[in-house]
Structure formats: structure tokens, C-alpha cells
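A reminder before we start the practical. When you read a complex entry, don't treat the lines as separate problems. The point of joint prediction is that each chain is placed relative to the others, so the output describes one connected object in space. Small molecules and nucleic acid strands, if listed, are placed in the same frame. In the example below there are two entries. Take a minute to note the order of the lines before looking further.
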Amino acid sequence: VSEQELRELRTLLEAFRDGGVTPEDFVERYSSLWRKLNDEVDSAIAAHPSVGPTLPRLREMESRGEISTDEYLARVQGLYESLSGVQVRPGTAAAHALDHVYAEADAWDATQDTDEPLVSLDELQEAVRQAIRALSDQA
Amino acid sequence: VYEHSQPANRNEVAPGRRPQRSSADACAPEAVVRRLLDLQRLVGNQATARLVQRKPADIDQTNTLSYDASGKLTNAGAARATGPTRTKAINADLSRGWVTPNEQLIGGHLFGRAFGGPDNETNVVPWSQKTEADFSVVETNFKKQADSDALANAASAKTFTATVKSQATFQDRPDLKVDEAALDKEGWPTADPGRTERIKKFDEVAEHFSGVPTSVTVTVSGLSTGAVSFKPSSADIAPTFARNPAALKQAFVETIRFKRNATETRKLLKMPDWATFKKSPKLRTADDLFINKKLGHVASRHPGDWGVTNSNSPDNLKALETKLEAFILDGGNEQIEGVYVLNKVDVLHYVNPATKLWVCTEPDGTLVASYKLGQNQYDILITKGTVG
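Here is the predicted structure of the whole assembly.
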């Protein structure tokens, strides 16, 4: 993912916030960009000599109770710090915020034409505003 | 053919009609109430509740079980709600500790969804599992009698109709709210920013629980054996719900549903018969269309994740359903009891740690969502039990 694509993502978030893009278009385009960001993280993890093999071991240790959940998160965060070439690092506020947008956009898209949509447009807008703030802070 | 009757409740206004009123009484309290009711009717309970905290409109509906001259029931099933119903919201409040006792409720259809009873607040009320079981017996029996009467009429080529009248009343729940004085009494610091949030949360709780009916009556008439009436006691409808005193305290932390390596039954609610669905569009039920829509969303938005095409063809969706079910049944994929998107829905997550493929269903197996998680989403899922 190039810096230009990250800028494109941010521009898209701002356009949706400002009403410059329809929700349907936003969901379509955002999903594609979010997927690229995550593919980039997966590739970086796979390419790294120690992160890829260590993550499953930490998961096992956490699952068996050998390390606490907080320790698991702290240790994976340390591993993510060593990844190179990723625009949005897992565990950061920006990653959390962008993930929220993705999940809410998917839920909105799946239920928006029903009597009781799972996620309202207001909620999706709020998630987008938070993501814009998180990306600004990251920059 | 299923038909909704015109509303019989004195507060109700027939669709398309508005009560005549002069401008002079527009500001009188009664006029305000009338206008709120109009608004509620126009945009629905959920939307109105965002503007004004109030209970749902009382239910007073008349529906029919209609049989043709061959004795066949002609009612068409109603579509299934896909969003966060009031019952789910109430159950979430209970399981998270805001209200006691934690006795989970069920959304009871006063007029069966299979007969066309809408899956919304004009027909569905949260009530106890006991009342749901009791009403199921009543419903089975009156349906059996109606079937029998319809067959008897069919012998002389006559149609048959049974009438089902459903009524429910609701009350606001100010006792479930909290105010500044209550928080003062619990020792909250005056400037604590959490005060507003806690008051807002209990406002939501009060709004949710105002949807628990205070009375319910379902009466079936037109049967050869005479009228059948179902009227559960208020104690049977639901226990007396009260604020959890611990939830008023500043230190209260809500219980979030989260269990790793869960052992709930692994299942996916599937299309009953794809061949019929494919060949006979007219025979598609509301449930069929619901399942088709859910699968269609996954196929169109995340086809690459599941190795299917971006197509809503029955063959493609059947292939997707097969893959999703195999994934759910595979014990190598962890089952996690948790919640989904803004903690709105209690779900079962299924996730593969290597591929990060994920399927999320309601506890009854209804598909909620599915895609390949990002690394960050995966970490949050296995440490907090939530996606979104």
C-alpha cells in the first residue's frame, strides 16, 4: 500500500463525513482499501523471520493461560513494531478505528434495507470521524 | 390471503388518514400526545425513541387465518427482522448486569410469523420462556382446529377464516432511570464525566424495558369449538425487573459476554431446499429469502475470502453455505462466545487462527457476518470477544 493509497483512504473517509460520497459507494471503496491495508500487514508478517513463527506460539500461551491477555497484547504489539513497510500497524489507535469502520460498514451494508438496521448511518459516520482523528494523530 | 386489519385501538389512525384538528388545540397536551403518536406510527418506534423516550404503542391488531375452498391455508409468511430487536437489547442489558434478575426473554409473535405476523413491534413482544412455551401449545392447538374446520368446509367447497385478535399494553419505566441525585447518593464525584454516560445508559435501559408488555391477550374466534383465549399473568409474562443496585456505582463494570473455546452447539441455519428455491420462486418463503439475502451479502462483499464468485446465483450461494457450515463444524476453528458490532448482538464467533477466516452467527445458528479478519481484529476477537 503506497502512501498515496493511504491518502486516498483518508480522502474517502473525509468525503463520506462531508456527504461527498454515498454510503453505498463508500462501503464499496473503503472495503477494497481496507483489504489492501490488511493484506499488506499479512505479507509483512509472513516475510518477517521471527514475527510469523512467534505469533502462533503467543496465541497458544495466552489460550493456555501461561500469559495474561494484557501480556499477550503487549508482546504482539512489540512484534508489530518490528514490521517494516506497513502503513497502519496492528494494535495502534488508527488500526482499531479503521477496523471499526470496516465492521460497521459491513453491518450497515448487510442490514440497511431492513426495518431495523444493525448499524445506523449516524453510527457509521461517528466511526468514520474517529478514524479520521486517529489517522491525524498517527500522522 | 393474509391481510392486516385497520387498527382498532382508539389511539391508532388508519394508514393514510390523519385526525382532523383545529390549530387552536395544536399546543394542548392532548394534541402533543396525538402528534407524537402520529410520528411514532409514521416513522416507527425505534426512530421515535431517538427523539422522545417513550414506550411502544399498545398493540391492538386483528388478523386472520384464511383457508381457500380446498382447505389450504393461504397466509404467506412474514419476512424476518435482521436488526437489533428490542428483545435482544433487553437480553443484552440483563446479561451485562444493568438489570436484575437475569432471566432472558424471548420475542413472542402474537400472530405467528409463519402466518404473516410481522417480525416487528406491532406484533412481537418480549416475554418469558415459560409464556412462549405456553403460547406455543395454544397456537398449535388452535391451528390444528382451524385446519380441521377448513377441511370440513372444503368438503362443501367453502372457504374458512379464523380471526386472531392480539392485544398488548405497555408502560413507561421511569423506575429504571437514574438521575443526578441517585448518583450523588452513590458517592459519584460531582465533576465525574462518567455521570452523563451512566444516566444515558439507564435512559436506554428504561426505554428498552418499556417494551415488556404489562398485559397480553390473544383471542381466536371463528373456530367450530368456540373462541380460544390466551391471557398470561403479568408475573408469567416477565419477572419484576429492577435496576441492579451495583450498576449505579461508579466502579461498576458491565459483564461482557466472552468465552474462549466455547462448547455451544455448532450449527448454521441453512436453506431447507436449494432445488426448490432455485426452480420455484413462487414457493420461496420469507425464511428462504432471509437466508438468501445473508449469504448474498457475504458472496457479493467477500467472495475472495471464501473462494466463491461475486454472484447471487443459487448454485454459488449453496456452495458458500456448504463452506460456511463446514467451517463452523470444524473443531479446529475456535468457537468464541462474544458480541458483534458495538456490542449490539450476542453471537458465536468461529475463527481459524492461521487464515483468520471468521464466521459469526447468532446462538441459534443464524448467519450474521463472515469475512477474513485483519490481524488487529483477530487480536481483539481472541482477547475481548468482539468484532466491531
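Discuss with your neighbour: Chain A is about 75% helix and 0% strand. What might explain this?
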